[in-house]
Write a structure and sequence with these properties.
With 548 residues, the protein is of the alpha+beta class. It contains 16 helices and 10 strands. The chain is elongated and about 90 Å long.
């Protein structure tokens, strides 16, 4: 592939922006109520998912003259963005709404209320709501409300207030009114009344507390956890069989496999916890995000050092190590901030925006660096005429180009389906936007494992000094000459005590020549034709110097 084409591909790859997904959907909420308060809950639900409400006294005492009127409103929509992108203050204005926000944003709604005469009724261990209110279809905003009524086929459970009627995203809004002697309390302080209780809302369906949007992701993480276990077992088997021939780069690959295995296991545990408990431990989720950030940082460094030819073309990276460490730490920092803000619900702030833009910029620079390094490494191997290593890097380069094209196609598809739409109906496919990038890297890791796997001939990929073929032939002939003329005095031949020093000086000269003539700047890479002409001139000069 020409260098200019590589640069164009790299420019396209710079458009890749990290997928920004939210945390997994919880199904159990505990809301503290200490005054007239409203609460909004969002979730994708399976059909026949039951919504439960329970109340618990926090103070232990409550004024018996207080009464409570608790009403709720359940609304489904075919538009995922209507449910999850509507702010709480605007969602509260939808309470009791019987029409669509826009034409085509169809759905259903149901609402009801229950009156508690006093605290004792509110805090009963088992509150039984005798009936579900029927759900009705939303009407067009320009037409009269529909009178079509749909009823529930089965009897509700204890503590149940509503039941989902179809798979889809739902908005559940609860209003709490406090009454004192039948009059709504507007100012609790003036009445010198105090109360506090916890309202617990649960949504449980066919797959326990799991939602239809998160169920495919849980299965995906389970499969990927098994895949990484197989990766680790295969890599451990290779390393055990050929432990005498291991290269440094192969230890890096093993570290990335272990981190990937841990990451997938932690995320799978998170989804399992949500499925059976309805909620997750915040500390465990933050740990999973930090582990994911560490794995992604190490993965980018791995691809970079492979592209730079560490241990294969170069014995050491020299000052490049400092740049690698700086890039890795910067990516780890911003990726950690981005992940923590996503799971804690603070993703829409200024800090989150800076972190996301910084990640995009760092990723673009990393990809540019990868392709520049691959171009330089490939050119160096061509000059050395090392067919084995050159074939390895050509396969690696072609693999990266293929994944660049696949990534660009996927970004175009997700932008068209998920972002550039007024009503986002493809909510079932949202999990693909997260799974694709994890699957993409796992495939790249598999290619690296196959190309750089430990074997009996692993050392053919390791770095070796630049020695001329003529010198190797002379060294091979020298023992044969000594045996043929053993015991005879050979005139004109003098012992060369400085042979090793000459060899070292020859290697230094060759390495100096490579450093002076191998392109290291972007301008050199962008002008392949001129460099090819200079390469032929330099080869001619080398051959002439050898003859002299």
């Amino acid at each position: 592939m020409p260098d200019a084409e590589k640069l164009r591909s790299c420019l396209l790859l710079s458009a890749l922006v990290l997928h920004v997904g939210g945390a997994a959907e919880v199904s159990v909420w505990s809301v503290s109520i200490n005054s007239t308060q409203d609460a909004v809950f969002r979730k994708t639900l399976y059909a026949n998912t039951t919504v439960f409400m329970r109340f618990q006294n926090d103070l232990g005492t409550c004024d018996r003259n207080l009464a409570f009127n608790i009403s709720w409103y359940l609304r489904s929509s075919v538009c995922y963005n209507e449910v999850f992108n509507t702010p709480d203050n605007k969602a509260m204005n939808m309470f009791g709404m019987d029409h669509m926000l826009k034409d085509g944003w169809s759905g259903f709604y149901s609402h009801g209320y229950v009156y508690f005469e006093n605290c004792s009724a509110l805090f009963m261990p088992k509150v039984y709501f005798t009936d579900f209110n029927p759900h009705q279809p939303l009407s067009s905003p320009k037409s009269d409300p529909s009178n079509l009524t749909l009823s529930w086929p089965d009897k509700p459970d204890i503590g149940a207030v509503a039941k989902a009627w179809e798979d889809g995203p739902y908005l559940f809004i609860v209003k709490v009114q406090t009454l004192f002697h039948g009059v709504e309390v507007e100012d609790i302080a003036d009445e010198q009344l105090s109360f506090a209780f916890t309202m617990k809302v649960e949504m449980k369906g066919p797959h326990d507390y799991s939602s239809p949007a998160d169920w495919p992701l849980m299965i995906f993480f389970m499969v990927m956890c098994i895949v990484y276990v197989l990766f680790g077992a295969l890599w451990l088997f290779w390393c055990a069989c050929y432990w005498r021939d291991l290269l440094r780069i192969q230890f890096w690959i093993g570290a990335v496999i272990i981190l990937g295995m841990l990451e997938k296991a932690v995320f799978y545990s998170e989804y399992q916890s949500i499925r059976y408990k309805g909620d997750y431990v915040l500390g465990a989720v933050i740990f999973a995000e930090l582990l994911s950030a560490l794995k992604r940082s190490l993965a980018r460094i791995l691809v970079l050092i492979v592209s730079l030819g560490y241990g294969i073309v170069k014995p050491r990276l020299g000052t490049t190590v400092h740049r690698l460490v700086a890039v890795g730490l910067l990516y780890l920092l911003f990726s950690s901030v981005d992940g923590v803000l996503r799971v804690t619900g603070g993703f829409y702030g200024t800090v989150a925006l800076v972190a996301n833009l910084s990640l995009s910029l760092i990723d673009s620079c990393v990809m540019w660096w990868i392709f520049i390094s691959l171009s330089q490494t490939t050119r160096l191997l061509k000059l050395r005429r090392n067919v084995v290593k050159l074939s390895l890097y050509q396969h690696f380069t072609n693999t990266l180009i293929f994944f660049v094209v696949a990534s660009i196609i996927f970004i175009i598809w997700t932008t068209k389906v998920f972002r550039l739409v007024d009503c986002q109906r493809s909510w079932r496919d949202l999990w693909v936007d997260d799974a694709f990038w994890r699957l993409l890297f796992s495939t790249i890791l598999l290619v690296i494992m196959v190309l750089l796997r430990p074997s009996a001939n692993s050392q053919r990929f390791s770095h070796s000094p630049l020695i001329d073929e003529d010198d190797e032939e002379d060294e091979a002939k020298e023992p044969m000459m000594n045996e043929a003329f053993e015991g005879m005095k050979m005139r004109g031949s003098k012992p060369d005590n400085n042979g090793s020093q000459k060899l070292l000086s020859k290697e230094d000269e060759d390495m100096k020549w490579v450093e002076e003539n191998i392109p290291t700047s972007v301008a050199d890479v962008a002008l392949p034709v001129m460099l090819d002409e200079e390469e032929e001139i330099l080869k001619t000069k080398m051959e002439r110097s050898k003859m002299e």
